[in-house]
Structure formats: structure tokens, C-alpha cells
Design brief:
By secondary structure, the protein is mostly helical. The protein folds into 2 domains: 69 residues, Helix Hairpins, CATH 1.10.287.70; 215 residues, Four Helix Bundle (Hemerythrin (Met), subunit A), CATH 1.20.120. It contains 9 helices and 2 strands, in the order αααββαααααα. The model has no long low-confidence stretch (mean pLDDT 87).
């Protein structure tokens, strides 16, 4: 009878947790709060609500849930619940998550290339039953890409200026996180910490330079098809850089506490995979939007 509740398998059956349902409610509140905030800025409140308060409260709750949930996962690992089989499945989960992120960015690349490759023509907009109207892209772009100058758009960025510097910064951060990874595999904790410090600093530098670039853009988000596709693609990438930097900063704190070992370091490995994914996405953004999408002679005068 003593062994009736003993564990005879390599799988981890998690304890009951409040975080899934709380995270769902917080995520729903964040989404609705963002819509309320945007609608109130347009002068059309939703459900009689206005302002950023629902969004901010829900977002803070979501961050708190994330912190507590991942703290529980770390606790489970220290208790020995993350067997080799469980670690393998965690890796599968991270791979599938990154695959979903790839498809997320495919949508923004699709939107950009759709208008960049087909800047002219008339497109019919329809709902399930009848046509709603037409959109003449010639009126929005001048029939070519990059679009004609207007009150919303003057010119594209010079890809060989700040965008190139940002590319080198992000590529260097990929080198430093790889250095940290190899140091961990070789049991060199000091080099692991140095590599993570360099990566976090470079990630923060990239975000700062991106914000500076946005502040000096010769176009804005609203009122123009180029600005909307540019800022949606590069802006979501910037959000991923911020998330990845926080991810790696947490790994740095854990490395300083001695949490990671040569055989058990999935938390760091997941962060490194995510960071390399962010690097690769930026290379595609730089090549397609900044270089190819800049047009002939873009670097000459801007």
C-alpha cells in the first residue's frame, strides 16, 4: 500500500494552478482595454468606457501572472520534476511556439509585399453577401513603390545608415549569446555571465536606436499605406526584442545565482533560441523593407 501513490513514470503531472484561468482573464482584459483606449482616443468610447485604465490594470496583472507561473516552473525544475522526458517535451513546446511566431511575422511580410509588388490597380472589397466598395492603390501609392511623396510620406530610410548599425548590433548580440551558451556547456560560469551581460546591453541598445530611428522617420503610422506596413512589421519585431531582452535578463539573474548547470539549463536554451529567431527576422526585415523596399538611390540623399 505504501507504493500505491508512488511515481513509476518519467512524466510530470502538474499540481492544480490558478494561473491558466487568471492569465486568460488578464489577456482578455488587456485586449479589450487596448480597444477601449484606442476608441476613446478616436472620440468613440466602447461600452461607455474610456482611457487606458483597463488596459494598464490587465497588463500589469498579466505580467504578474507570467512572473508567478514561470517561478512555479523553475520551482518544479529544482524539485526534480523536469526529467529528461519532460525537458524534451519542453523543447518541443518551444519549437512549436517559435513556429507560431514565424507565421505571425509571415502575415506582416505578406501585407508589405502584397502592396510593394502590386502598388497599382483597383481592388474590390466584399463581405459575405455583396460588394462594399473598391480601393484604387494608384491613389495611395502613385502606382509604384516606394510611394509618391505626400503629407504623410516623404521618403524611406537610408538603409546604410542607422538601420545598418542596428543590424550589426543585433548580429553581435547573436554572437555574444552563443558565446554564453558555449561557456555554459563548458561549465565556465563567469564567461556565461559576461556573455549574457553583453547580450542584454546590446539588446537594450538596439531598442534605443530603433526608438531614435522612429523619432526621425520621414513618415508616420496613420494616413499612409507605407507607414502602416513599415511600423507594424518593424514595431512588432521591436516588441519581440524587448521581450527577448527581458528573457535574457532573467537568465542573467538566474546564472548569477548558479541555477543553470551543464546538464540542466532549458530556461537559458529557450531564451537563446528565441533570440536567434529575433535575429533572423530582423535580417529579413532589413533586406526586404530597408534595402529592397527603399527604391533606387534611397541612400543618396536621406
Amino acid at each position: 500500500m505504501a507504493d500505491s501513490h508512488a511515481k513509476h513514470h518519467d512524466y510530470h503531472l502538474v499540481d492544480p494552478s490558478p494561473w491558466p484561468i487568471v492569465a486568460s482573464v488578464a489577456a482578455l482584459g488587456t485586449a479589450i482595454g487596448a480597444i477601449v483606449w484606442m476608441r476613446s482616443n478616436m472620440g468613440t468610447p466602447l461600452f461607455g468606457m474610456s482611457g487606458p485604465w483597463l488596459f494598464l490594470i490587465s497588463f500589469v496583472a498579466l505580467c504578474y501572472v507570467a512572473f508567478r507561473w514561470w517561478a512555479d516552473v523553475i520551482k518544479e525544475s529544482k524539485q526534480g520534476d523536469h526529467t529528461p522526458v519532460v525537458q524534451l517535451h519542453l523543447r518541443y513546446g518551444m519549437i512549436m511556439f517559435i513556429a507560431s511566431e514565424v507565421m505571425f511575422f509571415v502575415a506582416w511580410f505578406w501585407a508589405y509585399f502584397d502592396v510593394a509588388l502590386f502598388p497599382s490597380g483597383v481592388f474590390q472589397i466584399e463581405n459575405m453577401t455583396q460588394p462594399i466598395g473598391t480601393v484604387a492603390r494608384d491613389e495611395l501609392t502613385g502606382g509604384h513603390w516606394p510611394p509618391d511623396a505626400s503629407e504623410y510620406f516623404q521618403h524611406t530610410f537610408d538603409p546604410w545608415g542607422l538601420p545598418l548599425v542596428n543590424t550589426l548590433v543585433l548580429l553581435l548580440s547573436g554572437v555574444t549569446v552563443t558565446w554564453a551558451h558555449h561557456a555554459l556547456l563548458e561549465g565556465k560560469r563567469n564567461q556565461l555571465i559576461y556573455g549574457l551581460v553583453c547580450t542584454v546591453v546590446l539588446g537594450a541598445l538596439f531598442t534605443f536606436l530603433q526608438a531614435y530611428e522612429y523619432g526621425h522617420a520621414a513618415f508616420n503610422f496613420a494616413g499612409h499605406i507605407y507607414g502602416s506596413t513599415f511600423f507594424m512589421a518593424t514595431g512588432f519585431h521591436g516588441a519581440h526584442v524587448i521581450i527577448g531582452t527581458i528573457f535574457l535578463f532573467v537568465c542573467l539573474l538566474r546564472a548569477m545565482k548558479g541555477d543553470f548547470t551543464v546538464k540542466k539549463h532549458f530556461g537559458f536554451e529557450a531564451a537563446a533560441w528565441y533570440w536567434h529567431f529575433v535575429d533572423v527576422v530582423w535580417l529579413f526585415l532589413f533586406a526586404s523593407i530597408y534595402v529592397w523596399g527603399a527604391g533606387a538611390g534611397a541612400g543618396a540623399g536621406h
